[in-house]
Design goal:
Keywords: Signal. With about 180 residues, the chain is mainly beta. It has one helix at about 1-25; strands spanning about 50-60, 65-75, 80-85, 90-100, 105-110, 115-125, 125-130, 135, 140-150, 155-165, 170-180.
Length: about 180
Amino acid sequence: MNRFRTSAAVFSALLLLCFPLFAAESAPQQPPKPQRPCDTSEGGQLDFWVGDWALTWKDAKGNTQTGSNKIEKVLNQCIIQENFNGPGLEGRSWSVYDPKTKQWRQTWVDSNGSYLEFTGAFADGKMELRMPATKGPDGKSVVRRMVFHDIKKDSLTWSWQSTNDGGKTWKDLWVIQYKRKA
């Protein structure tokens, strides 16, 4: 009888020790978390813009104007936030890569009450974001875009442009030179 009790006790102890191993093997595997769009190579295409920038541009009269733009990654490093400050204008934008459309999306708001939406992509060393077409004063369809070009480590050019001929020609409306602050 003692032998039976000893064997039962040893078996029970082994069962208790091994049960977690069996349970772990039979537990369903958790599916891997989906990759965040900001962690993809496409999601890093706007990283060149992140930083603290000194800006210069010419106004309509040809006078040099200056401003600043601080670009940072926010919301768990997944959103690019712009903080623009210039004479008479403050603005903010938020940019995110959308893997469903394979495009970037940007929303801009400013101290003049503007709200603009853009979509676009990075190609041929340039980032281009466009607004949907609108009607100009002459009734023609007008498309506006921003283009980040001449991108280097510590400088870039940003151009705000419009076309009313379907993109055959583009007119510069505002060209800003970016220089990274030290």
